[in-house]
Design brief:
It is a single chain. By secondary structure, the chain is of the alpha/beta class. Helix content is 41%, strand content 14%. It has one domain: TIM Barrel (Alpha-Beta Barrel), CATH 3.20.20. The strands form two sheets. The protein has an eight-stranded parallel beta sheet. Helix 1 links the parallel strand 3 and strand 4. Helix 3 packs across helix 4.
């Protein structure tokens, strides 16, 4: 496993496991298998309605709390300072822990400043080892940085080979903020797994198109959180740290990028 060190010294796994849609007994099974494979970052959110599932899966795994990097996010119903404070405590209770490793603001809501102020207080109180944002574009990010006390440690955004957002990554890095990719496989909006360029480059390394797509992001300094309900795919996604892409290969993959989000984000 490779790690990215956040500006406050917290080490975050470069590859984590997304838990969107994973709930109940099946969710616990999938998350448990991911932990058994070796994943140590679990990404959840209040919006996902599965924090209890994630927390139970961690306890069932037998791993110590300090061995698992837990991320959760506050969303629209937490749209005030007081609601954000209360809902974070609800998240901690649901997860069965007294802290999360990373607390994110899920979107740039109109009330983001007061919500983020509650997150800053949570960070100071030790309820979050790091705080950050999600789905903020460069302008929204810069505006928050100018007004907040504690700058975001992470910005989790749509990023994949068709929309890598390397300029945003550089903007964030200049302020010490780590970029993290959700939907690194595009959630089916493009057939990334059969993309000829990725397949050809991957074959040269004995790797799949999916592994090549993940490696491209990681080598560009972008953390990734792929999701899968199948153990063989979990293992495949996890095996991206034993090879490197050449500069020429990185440039070829870069030709896949387009100008627009596949999810309609501005």
């Amino acid at each position: 496993m490779e790690y990215f060190t956040l500006y406050n010294g917290v080490k975050m796994p470069a590859l984590g496991f997304g838990t969107w849609t994973l709930r109940g007994e099946e969710g616990r099974r999938c998350i448990g298998e991911a932990l058994a494979v070796g994943y140590r970052l679990l990404d959840t959110a209040r919006m996902y309605q599965n924090e209890e599932t994630v927390g139970q899966a961690v306890r069932d795994s037998g791993l110590g709390r300090e061995e698992v990097f837990l991320t959760t996010k506050l969303w629209q119903p937490s749209n005030s300072y007081q609601k954000a404070k209360s809902d974070l405590d609800r998240s901690l209770q649901a997860l069965g822990t007294d802290y999360v490793d990373l607390l994110l603001l899920h979107e740039p809501y109109p009330e983001r400043l007061e919500m983020y102020r509650a997150m800053e207080e949570a960070y100071k109180a030790g309820k979050a080892r790091a705080i950050g944002v999600s789905n903020f574009n460069a302008e929204e990010y810069e505006s928050l940085v100018q007004q907040c006390e504690i700058r975001p440690a992470v910005n989790q955004v749509e990023s994949h080979v068709y929309y890598p957002r390397l300029e945003l990554c550089r903007t964030l890095a200049a302020q010490g903020t780590q970029m993290q990719s959700w939907a690194p496989f595009t959630e089916g909006r493009r057939d990334l797994f059969h993309e000829p360029i990725l397949m050809e480059i991957g074959a040269a390394h004995g790797k799949t198109a999916a592994q090549t797509a993940l490696r491209y992001l990681v080598q560009n300094g972008i953390a990734v959180i792929p999701k899968s309900a199948h153990r063989e795919r979990m293992e495949e996604n996890f095996a991206v740290f034993d090879f490197s892409l050449t500069g020429e290969e990185m440039a070829r993959i870069g030709t896949l990028k387009g100008p627009d989000s596949l999810f309609g984000w501005p």
